[in-house]
Amino acid sequence: MNGGMDSTNKEQVWAQDDLLKLLDAMKVNLPEKDLAKYKTSEAHLDWEKVAFNAYSAEMCKQKWNEVSREIRKFRTLTELIFDAQDYIKNPYKGKKLKKHPDFPKKPLTPYFRFFMEKRAKYAKLHPEMSNLDLTKILSKKYKELPDRKKEKYVNDFLREKESFVLNMLKFKEEHPDLLESTGKKGSNVPEKPKTPQQLWYNHEKKAYLKTHSDATTKEIKDSLGKRWTQLSDKKRLKWISKSLEQHKQYEEKMREFIQQHPELNMTQEDIVKSTLTKAERQLKDKFDGRPDKPPSNGYSMFCAELMSSMKDVPSTERMVMCSQRWKQLKQCEKDSYQKRCEQKKKEYEVDMNRYLCSISEEEQQRILGEQKMVGFKKGTGGSSPAPKKSVSKAKNSSEKPKRPISAMFIFSEEKRPKLQQERPDLSDNELTRLLARMWNDLADKKKEKYKNLEAVLKAESEKRGKEEQSKLPDPPKTAQDIWQHSVIGDYLARFKNDRPKAQKAMEATWNTMEKKEKIVWIKKAAEDQKRYERELSEMRSPTAVVASGKKMKFDGEPKKPPSNGYQKFSQEMLSNGELNHLPMKERMAEIGGRWQRLVQKEKDRYKKIAEEKQKQYKVQLEQWLASLSPQERATYKEYNSLKRKNAGKAGAANAKKKATTKSSDLDEDEDDDDDDDDDDKESEEGSSSGEDSEEGDEDDDDDDDNDENDDEDEEDEEAEDKENKSESSSSASSSGDTSDSDSD
Length: 744
Description:
32 helices; disordered N terminus
């Protein structure tokens, strides 16, 4: 037997001890009561849990298939006789224990005593009634009985119950072997913690049974269930605290248990995460001092305040009324709500930081990890990106490309900056309305330009959508798909490779399968769903963008100004076109020379301009960040922090190579600048041709101005990067010159 297996498995030689370990691991992972056919149990076995040491799940499964081919899979009559002998000796194992002749009979409840006594009488009186109708009548009759008459049945029940307890103790003494056989495998696993409602229910149930000893389980549940919903917050908090305490003890016991029983292959994921519902968690957090999250915008704040006075209005009509009243408000009133909302958000961040400092590290991690709190950073009120988004959002963002912006939107974005300068008194909403009117008044001929741009953007968006779709991770599989994949071989063998028949048979089997058999595959499907979400979020995270070296663009982000006087001077020299005839290497050298020849007064002037620009930039950046949503702000801040980290690493790595790579970098800069010069010429030609074709047209002149400004902005950004590369050499020479002038 072993020789046969060795010949078939030359790639991996298994020691005998390892083979025995494999069988032990399979044994441990079998269900508590393994009564299914061996093929069914084999198909349901989780090979990931069977895997050990250097042997993967696939290797373990393959080795078992090899071993199982060498052993018979039918039972002989001798084996059946052994089982029959065991059954005759112990016929009362497991669930059959209650059939044992010595097993004490459980006493009937007071209601069942009344029912058994009266049933025959009522059946004769109402022969046309079914058993169900008779039960309903007798149940009603029993409830209407006075306590005096009920007492007889209750006393009989209590007397027999005492006798039952004594007889049960006697049975345990006489048949200890039978009771031991009913003990569950893994019965020493710590008991799962109770929810607040379960703890309260168990407590109240005892008190309820004292006054209603004959009550059925359903009656108790109905009565107590209603009372739980009416319980005050203060009383609920008592049970919430008890449940949390119980959960804490359970977690400690489970961690100990997992360490003591490595053979069970249990992980931290097997520990119950929480015993509280979302509402209970919110109540506990509120009691601990967690601040309420403010409305996301002015309109939401207006609706929240208005709805508090509209409790009598049906919920379907409330939002309609809110919308109508909001439209009737003046713009200054709307702006007032928006300002109040922004103020509330700032207060919320301060309060939240204070709250986070007052709770344990564990609780801090939980709160910061919650989906609604994603983007909140302790200590700063800043943000960090969402580690995970909801499944629906992830699917929508990945499977549907973003809708391209409209022609009107392109027009608005183009005209907005100039309009903001001309009309600083207008709010954002008023500007948007004014731009919409301007668009409506625009001639069709002029609209054509923006419609063409929209068509180009739409085509690009569709192309990007297709490319993005091809890069998506494998979609998650359903529980049925995973199960079918694991048993397809057996079904194809049964139906002689007739796939349609095998498919139908598998579907029929799955539909008739019990839930407890499906649970393994449902868990695997849930894991696959998590894998899909994880890969999707990793693919879309800012980390990937930074790692790829691409610049991430944010709509409306203010342009970063020069950081010092030399950069401002360099930017000015590069943008005025005076040195465009020189290659980049010579151009930067000339700028460095001119900076050195500048008098200190001029240098100070440039330095002052740069500092002023930096101040303006900080104000604009704060205003822009305040206008972003929490998610957008989180993405922006993480992108910048990752960019700084990558830049730091790259700087450290490249410091040693600086001397060797400097010349090649300058050559690349020269090539880039030549390309920029060509682009500038093309844009100038385009703008001049536009002026020739439609002279006197103010709108087209504006368009040309904007195009030129855009080109200048792009050139400035590129220049800034180039300046940083040469700054070290220029600043060195500059400092030398400054020291000379000082000595003079």
